[in-house]
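Possible regression after last week's pipeline update?

I re-ran a chain I had predicted before the update to compare outputs. Posting the input and the new output here so someone can diff against the archived version. Not blocking, just want to make sure nothing changed silently.
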Amino acid sequence: VETRQPVWINDVPGDPNWKHMEGSEWIRSYLGAPILIKGQVIGFLGLTSAQPNFYCEEHAPRLMAFADQAAIAIENAQLYAEVQRLAVLDDLTGIYNRRAFFDLGQREVERALRTMRPMCALFLDIDHFKRINDQYGHLVGDEALRLIVETIALKKRASDQMGRWGGEEFLLVLPDSTLESGRQMAERLRKAIEEASLPLAGGGSFSVQASFGVAGAQVSGEGLAQLDRLILQADTALYRAKQAGRNQVCVHEA
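New output (post-update):
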């Protein structure tokens, strides 16, 4: 770690720097090389032998070259994983974006069909969001969006999935939930959002409110409503909540 260079030990039992561990008594020779990414040691390649004096100085650069190739492969894998992660997440809130959430929701529909269990969709929209942006600025508006996500994350179940549908709209899919349990969850989330507050840089704070639309799909002999239909029903219920005065929950009645 200190030198960023390979190390070899010709006689492991007699080396004072070797840390003996149970199960390693057979090791007599060792050759190790650091795996470096951007100058930082992220791991090691280690070779061991039961034969004393098995490794020599000329082996070190060969192992280091192999460690460098391993570092390139690991870094490429990390970059690919990060690109894949960013492709499915909303960059502002860190939750699923619309495209990724729809794919996830479709899998939940298929799972509900396999298990013959109900599910719900919750559509929510921040009330008077344009007014927040106009009065406090878009940076505060961004903080309001993040506040919504953090508040919901604390209240929802681990199995409930959340995504940003667009702008100030969010969608949740609740597996194993009836229409009534979905309504109850929406009401808990509405109250939690209303009670949360966002501090302002110049002092003081303000709170946000949200309207909810809930739609449920009960598995029966006729099957389960497709996800796009379920989302449309929840969106229709959300529109009714907006028309009725906002900051409330409306349920789509089949």
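Follow-up from reviewer: compared with the archived run. The chain has a mean pLDDT of 90. Marking as no regression found.
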